[in-house]
Amino acid sequence: MKKFFQAAIFLGVLLAFVQPVVGQIDTTRGRYYQPIFSNVTVTSNVVYGSAVTFTGNTQALAMDIYQPTGDTVSRRPVIIFAHQGGFVAGARTDQYMVDVCRRLARLGYVTASIDYRLLFLPYDTVNIARAAIRGMQDMRAAVRFFRRDAATTRQYRVDPRYIIVGGSSAGGFAALQVGYLDKDSEVPAYVDIAAMGGVEGQSGNPGYSSAVLAVLNLSGATESATYIEPGNVPLCSVHGTLDAVVPYFKGRIGSSLPPKYVVGSGLLNPRASAVGVRNTLRTLRGAGHIPFENTSAAGLAYADTAFWTMRDFLRPSLGQPGTVLSAAAAASTKRSALQAYPVPAAHEVYLETPAGTVFKPQSVELLDATGRVVRRFRWETATQLVRREDLRAGVYYLKPKSLPTVRVLFE
Questions:
Q1: For residue 333, is pLDDT > 80?
Q2: Both 51 and 151 in a single domain?
Q3: Could you give the CA distance from residue 27 to residue 31 in angstroms, rounded to a whole number?
Q4: CA distance 110 to 108
Q5: I need a surface site. Which of 116, 125, 151, 268 has the fewest CB within 10 A?
Q6: CA-closest candidate to residue 245, choices 288, 292, 198, 306
Q7: How far apart are CA 237 and CA 342, in angstroms?
Q8: 404 inside domain
Q9: Rounded CA gap, 63 and 77, in Å?
Q10: Is 126 a domain residue?
């Protein structure tokens, strides 16, 4: 009998190691919210598939994978990004892709920046739509790559339930289509989706799902808002209202193309709200196309805004809205809780606390760069609109009664 119990205990321990963990993603100690890792390890030129280009040649598809150095967690969420470039230019090593992948990896995510098929001829409406489909198909293959890895070698220690896609400009088009273009019948007939291998495509890793947990759309658009349907995955968008390349609402893309109209974030996110899909729209008022990719001081501030927006949006999808385990951790969270978007701002900012923070109404002072109080108001809701009104351009500080001061920049 004693040997029987010893064997049972041994079997239980063994099963604990070999069976997959099905619990929630671990978000304790500030993971996925604070930069808890100092360094990031990059694995370059990882081939995730191959596909036929518009010229009929076969292209190997590669990605760079970013992991937090020294991380020991066995099952981690992954974010797959696609670069900008109008489906004619750009690469996975573009500086913004490198920066955002590194920054999110320091929070604990596994991140990846992918190359996808570029170029199209003739340069017309039909072929730019096909180029967008090819980008979507390649991104789906990248999603399947991580699911295959999770089911086989587990080299990247990814949790297959937590795969997120995102992209900037053209990459945003691809990510939106991965998340919401899920039926061949939704593709315009002129694209001839059947000849292209269907929505899923043939870019690699067949037999695994390309479904995702959420979509991060940075200055992207898509063919129709009706792609977003009840039950679809959450959507996070960041978009400038004066975007002259990819419309914030609805408009034409491709200056030398025959008219091709697409729908931007200003209509996609309201559509998501209308059909009950959780979403966040970070409107960059007065900003142009992909301002967060600019390396000026204003561009870096926009990059911060985009990063904080994505970070906060993803927390509910990870299962816990900012759990902390100790008084020290709680104090750390409190110090970073207060945020103001967008930065810089043209006409107004939103003062808010992230999900999971208990909000208490309180008085707020607005100070100029010299420390002079230029306005006082009552902060009544978790997200409060603060209008610029007659304030001059420059740096200001919002100082709530019981929370840390936050910096604001009006252009």
A1: no
A2: yes
A3: 5
A4: 7
A5: 151
A6: 288
A7: 13
A8: yes
A9: 17
A10: yes
Using pLDDT thresholds of 50, 70 and 90, give the confidence band for residue 387. Answer: confident
The rounded distance, in Å, linking the Cα atoms of 286 and 280 is: 19
Residue 258 pLDDT: 58
Domain boundary, last residue among 318, 345, 367:
318
**Contacts from 298-304 at CB under 8 Å and sequence distance 24+?**
298/344, 298/409, 298/411, 301/342, 301/343, 301/344, 301/409, 302/342, 302/343, 302/344, 303/96, 303/99, 303/100, 304/343
Cis link prior to 400 (omega < 30° from 0)?
no
Would you give the DSSP letter of residue 152? T
| 251 close to 230: Cβ distance less than 8 angstroms | no
172, 220 Cβ separation under 8 angstroms: yes
pLDDT band with cut points at 50, 70 and 90 for residue 179: very high
Residue 20 forms part of a structural domain: no
Per the structure, the complete domain to which residue 402 belongs is given by 335-410
Q: Do 257 and 376 belong to one domain?
A: no
Torsion of CA 62, 238, 281, 335, to 10 degrees: 100
pLDDT value for 21: 38
319 close to 25: Cβ distance less than 8 angstroms:
yes
Say how many domains are in the chain: 2
Q: What percent of the chain shows pLDDT beyond 70?
A: 84
**Do 352 and 297 fall within a single domain?**
no
Q: What is the pLDDT at residue 216?
A: 98
**Does this model's pTM top 0.85?**
no
Distance CA 307, CA 199 (A): 30
DSSP H helices in 152-238:
170-180
Cβ atoms of 160 and 74 within 8 Å: the answer is: no
Distance from C-alpha of 233 to C-alpha of 323, rounded to nearest angstrom: 23
Lowest mean pLDDT among 178-192, 213-227, 333-347: 333-347
Query: Can you tell me which residue has the tokens 């596909």?
Result: 51
User: Tell me: the pLDDT tens digits for 261-283?
Assistant: 889 999 999 999 999 999 999 99
Q: 347 and 294 share a domain?
A: no
Length of the chain: 411
Domain assignment present for 11: no
Residues 359 and 313 occupy one common structural domain: no
